[in-house]
């Protein structure tokens, strides 16, 4: 017998839980794509997307996932042979660099490992060594989806400025937008990328690239942007169809509009950031209690200041990471994330890692419920662990 029958809970770091209101908004006939409600709704979406990113500049919407948003940014930022510096704090920092390299960009990678934030001294040294200012763009993630390392974007911008280097700053906020504070204009971010399926609570299929006027002017005339990827017409279309280089992703737009109404106009961004921070700390408290009885159970990022508020990467020790994920899904209907990028799937160590997502449409009972299922799984599987995890998590939720 198992207890999985009932509504399942997908606690992986994307796609995140889609609110019933978003699903209902998408469940409607196809609209007129030439005039009327869809055109007005898209204008509201664009305004709300700028609010979410903290910018008054430009936003391009692509029918794509996060990898497509990466390519959209790369295609407009660079010409072939130009140079980027990528700051990698996990698998996705490496991935964005690889994508740029395959598109003809010369990329140097500063790899800070899988559990550490950007070393600002190394960044400054790399930029000072670039006396000819060949590095056009610094690429980084705010929160790496695989490692859950959260970088201090303000500090990175200050480090770039301290060297006097003119490099643009491009930030991958795919795992963090809507969950962690983001103030693109105030923080000096030139390009920001994100996607619909995480903090924006909409099914996968939309990628977003926000870009400053400075980035647009400095990158004008590049040779990588094909008609589809060119961000100019998408951000400032002469006709509605140019927003999407053709037919609009109609039902995704209906869903996104409802999700942005919930996030921006009802809950409010600062309240959403605070909610994610509290739920993240509840997860960390549970792991802290489990760790007291088994040092093999630990969070990937030691310093709370550098942990993302949308996803938590952890280790339990092989084979218990995989065993616990299987138990939670098969016996209780809770799906946890794999330990992406911590080891190769053919390595024994791969089975010692997992991730718990707490992003988007997630509240206290969902997070506490997932932790309770994990606690039951540890007991069922006979994995040694400390006591009091649920009490510790509940205490965080109950804080005044």
Please tag this protein with its features.
Aspartate Aminotransferase, domain 1; Aspartate Aminotransferase, domain 2; alpha/beta; 400 residues; five-stranded mixed sheet; 2 domains; seven-stranded mixed sheet; 12 strands
Structure in words:
This protein is 41% helix and 15% strand. By secondary structure, it is α/β, with parallel strands linked by helices. The protein has two domains: 138 residues, Alpha-Beta Complex (Aspartate Aminotransferase, domain 1), CATH 3.90.1150; 220 residues, Type I PLP-dependent aspartate aminotransferase-like (Major domain) (Aspartate Aminotransferase, domain 2, 3-Layer(aba) Sandwich). The protein has a seven-stranded mixed sheet with strand order 2-8-7-6-5-3-4, with helices on both faces. Strands 1-11-12-10-9 form a five-stranded mixed sheet. Helix 4 links the parallel strand 3 and strand 4. Helix 1 runs antiparallel to helix 10, helix 11 packs antiparallel against helix 14 and helix 12 crosses helix 13. The radius of gyration is 21 Å and the shape is globular. The relative contact order is 0.16.
